Amino acid sequence: MRALIFLFFLSFDISAQEQGDVNYGFTSLEKATERPEIVYHLDLSKQKLEFFPLGLEVFQNLKTLDLTKNKISLLPAEVGLLVSLEKLILAKNKIVILPPQIAKLKQLKVLELSRNDVKTIPQEIGGLIALERLDLWSNNVQEVNENIATLSNLKLLDLQGMLISDEMKKQIAAWLPTTQIEFSSGCACGF
Prior knowledge:
Layout (H helix, E strand, L loop, with lengths): L1 H12 L10 E3 L2 H6 L4 E5 L20 E3 L20 E3 L20 E3 L7 E2 L11 E3 L7 E2 L11 E4 L6 H10 L4 E4 L8
Parallel strand pairs: 1-2, 2-3, 3-4, 4-5, 5-7, 6-8, 7-9, 9-10
């Protein structure tokens, strides 16, 4: 009976990534470091972190990293060491710039940066060859590098909640003709 109960609870904690793989999620960095080889998902949201946690490269199988609702203002170069990462969620932090090492995340499909203070989409964005969704909703983007045009897998670019000139909107749309781009409606405020 005890084994049956264990299997019942185990079925809610794991699911298959691929045949033969086990997919574990953790909400504690301390618990995750006990068995780094089985960490696929790490949710460190709402933990009042002021700095991006260093040493995450020990999680060689890490697919999802969620750092939502913290106080992180700087992404260190070490973010580029998370080469298996497919989903990086950094919403509701204080991030201003993306480091050049972000381009090393060749498996990254989702980059969630909503509600930060990102001002520039740098040229290194073009290195994210697998990127399908880039969410920059409610940032302060003033500059978009033309390398964004190399993101051939990008399906959704969310640029809502920002004042972006019509000229820049047209340029971004020309660079990404097959991407769904979400802009905020223009303002006829008379400024």
